[in-house]
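Here is the promised in-class demo. Please do not try to memorize the tokens; focus on the logic of going from shape to residues.
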């Protein structure tokens, strides 16, 4: 029985991009854990908690992305070796300042957002509304987190753009 009304082979490009997003999210997740464990300094309490919030969210998204791939009737990527080979996100050192850690996270966010756009573009070609809806919500959430983290990196006197 076909519950998707989309032929499997037409879904393959979306699944490839979803698997890349899954790999990106795994490396991002581990980077967050690394920072959570190794943060030092005046912002320890605030960032330790924030990094935990972010990696908990990433863990949920990892599961949802894998389940979406399964819903599309394909196997999700599931080996660390494959994640490291496929991901555009690199592992990071823990020997960084708090602001360097946040800047690395923002760079990871930019990569995730770019990959999410690729997923949406492929899903639109087959009218895969389930994937579009899932990833669209992720984009909105990640953009908001990025805005907040970016604000953390700014000086108090910084200003936003004027209309």
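The designed amino acids, position by position:
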């Amino acid at each position: 029985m076909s519950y998707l009304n989309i032929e499997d082979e037409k879904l393959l490009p979306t699944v490839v991009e979803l698997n890349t997003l899954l790999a990106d999210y795994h490396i991002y997740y581990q980077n967050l854990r690394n920072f959570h464990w190794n943060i030092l300094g005046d912002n320890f309490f605030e960032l330790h908690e924030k990094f935990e919030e972010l990696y908990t969210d990433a863990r949920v998204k990892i599961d949802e992305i894998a389940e979406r791939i399964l819903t599309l009737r394909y196997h999700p990527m599931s080996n660390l070796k494959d994640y490291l080979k496929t991901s555009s996100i690199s592992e990071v050192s823990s020997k960084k300042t708090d602001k360097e850690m946040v800047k690395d996270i923002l760079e990871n966010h930019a990569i995730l957002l770019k990959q999410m756009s690729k997923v949406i573009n492929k899903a639109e070609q087959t009218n895969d509304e389930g994937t579009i809806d899932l990833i669209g919500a992720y984009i909105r959430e990640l953009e908001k987190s990025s805005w907040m983290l970016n604000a953390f990196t700014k000086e108090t006197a910084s200003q936003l753009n004027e209309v």
